Amino acid sequence: MVRLAVSAAGIVCVSLLGCVVSLAARPRAEILHFASGSEVVASYLALPSASGRHAAILIVHGDDGMTEWTKEKTRELATQGYIALAVDLYRGKVAADSEEAHELARGVPDDRALRDLEAAFAYLIARRDVSPAHIGVIGWQIGGWFALQLAIHEPRLAACVISNSALPTDPADLSRIHAPVLGHFGAKQRGINQDQIKAFEDALRTRGVQANLKTYPDAGSDFENGLDSIQYKPADAAAAWAQDLDFFARSLRE
Amino acid sequence: MKQWMRVLAVGALIGAAALGVYVWATPPKSQMVEYKSGDDTVHAYLVLPDSPGRHPGIVVIHEYWGLNDWVKEQAQKLAEQGYVALALDLYRGAVATDPGDASELMRALPHDRTTRDLEAAYSYLASRPEVDKNKIGSIGWCMGGGYSLQMAIHEPKLAACVVNYGAMPTDPADIARIQSPILGNFGADDRGITPDAVHAFESAMKAAGKSVDLKIYDGAGHAFENPNNTAGYRPDAAADAWNRIVAFFAKTLKS
Predict the structure, then answer these.
(1) Is A67 part of a structural domain of the chain?
(2) Torsion angle, alpha carbons of B63, B68, B71, B75, to 10
(3) Which residues have CB under 8 Å from B69's CB, separation 6+?
(4) I need a surface site. Which of A241, B38, B137, B255 has the fewest CB within 10 A?
């Protein structure tokens, strides 16, 4: 995949469209627009209530798009003290059903998604209230694949969490991952098997890069998603989220 | 004529007719083959035309369902047109019949491995004695359509590329690497690959001086060429798209 360098100077038009919550303890959330190549991408930014510099986390949605659940996770991360930016790879579309989710996932150009994430990273690292050495990413399903692509292409990334996503196999790509990786996989999904998980872990660990990919025996490929009435597994989801917060706390705090 | 002679004669006629039909209708020879892709072994469905000599080759790339009967049938149909068709299995044996399973398989696919599989498929076809290695094209539908375009980016010797409702590259550097003419068929109602995205790709290709012919079918959505997509199948659009594919490959691979 060819990487397109995206200049931080290309960031334009940051527009605040409200949603400012008055309660001091709750994070402020707003729609943010940033430039990705020649396009303008809408995203969802949640800010901690405390002032000063913060670690930051990019959030990459699953196959169904930037749903209310994705935004909720973004606000939760801001509540934990992170500047949290959820990038909308689908350009405003949210899937109403699994068929549409598939069409949307299939329609995303790989190069555009990576460009979006690199541009979002550039936006975050340029913010004065972001600690530049403490930026992480979390992605579910298709978003996990692109989170790993960001880990491959952005050496300054400090933490990467993935859930039920494909795993890169190219040794050259794997050797470029520097961020520690935490992953969650439902054992009942089809496609990603234990051999692939082990091969990925081994490739990182032999280079001294932390890789911890967990398997949940009774879960499928969407077990964390509170909007998925069939696959959602509350206990497994809570366990995964607790580990995510602990992992970010260890990897991103100064 | 005696009764038994009449029976014999009629029987012989029926037998001869049946043999004639059999010979006439002998499908192209198909077989499963294997080739190496990095450390992996990839399985593929290979169909050879009946006629001797060297033929153009086509790499056939499946939808998110996997290497199912419909994709094999497309490979057969291409072989009937005189091509050596190689339908590779990106899923390592898995085939889905349920959309949820298909989505999981698609989601689980490492894109880098797929690119490797496709480049290895090209090399495999080029190494076959029945194939003219200067005349190798690719075709894919849905997920495979996107990968057909990736093949055009990564394989500069590719001579023809067909995409049916697949994701299109946007990076100018990737588009600059495309050497092969591109034919595309899209549905206007596709929710993931919109007419805007098709037009943007067409403009970028033309601006880069590339050969591109994209058609958007009104009243058609995702996967309109596949009859198994019972709600979305559009027979007229599908027939038109197939005619375009046959003409495009004839022009690019047989001339």
Answers:
(1) yes
(2) 140
(3) none
(4) B255
Helix or strand holding residue A60 (H, E) = strand A54-60
Pairing of strands B84-88, B55-61: parallel
Quick check: B75 and B86 in contact, CB under 8 A? yes
- Residue B164 to residue B145: CA distance in whole angstroms: 5
Q: By the 8 A CB rule, do A210 and A201 touch?
A: no
Burial class of residue A242, CB neighbours in 10 A (0-12, 13-18, 19+): exposed
B73, B211, B206, B203: which is closest to B137 by C-alpha?
B211
Query: How far apart are alpha carbons A152 and A141 in whole angstroms?
Result: 17
pTM of the model: 0.87
Q: What is the rounded average pLDDT of the residues A63-89?
A: 97
Nearest by CB to B143, which of A106, A165, A170?
A106
Q: A residues 94-113 near B, CB within 8 Å?
A: 98-112
- Count of A-B CB contacts under 8 Å: 114
b/e per residue A205-220 (b: at least 16 CB within 10 A):
eeeebebebeebeebb
Domain that holds residue A155: 10-252
Question: Which tokens in the block code for residue A238?
Answer: 């809570």
The pLDDT-based confidence of A5 (bands split at 50, 70, 90) is very low
Classify residue A123: in a domain, yes or no: yes
Per-residue confidence at B28, pLDDT binned at 50, 70, 90?
A: confident
Chain B residues bordering chain A (beta-carbon distance below 8 Å): 38, 64, 91, 94, 96, 99-113, 116, 142-143, 146, 166-171, 173-174, 177, 190-194, 197, 222
Return d(Cα A61, Cα A42) in angstroms, integer: 13
Q: Is A218 on the interface with B (CB under 8 A)?
A: no
Q: What is the ipTM of this complex?
A: 0.83
Task: Read off the amino acid at residue B184.
Answer: G
B156 interaction partners in chain A (CB closer than 8 Å): none
What are the tens digits of pLDDT across the range B57-106?
999 999 999 999 999 999 999 999 999 999 999 999 999 999 889 999 99
- Set out the domains of chain B in order of their start, with CATH numbers: 28-253 (3.40.50.1820)
Interface with B, mutate which of A91, A111, A114, A230 (most B CBs under 10 A): A111
CATH number of the domain that A119 lies in? 3.40.50.1820
Contact B166 A106 (CB under 8 A): yes
Counted domains in chain A: 1
Helix (H, G, I), strand (E, B) or coil at A228: coil
Q: Strand B182-187 relative to strand B160-164: parallel, antiparallel, unpaired?
A: parallel
Flag whether A17 is in a domain: yes
Give every CB contact of residue B255 below 8 A, 6+ residues apart in sequence: none
User: How many Å apart are CA B18 and CA A2, to the nearest integer?
Assistant: 57
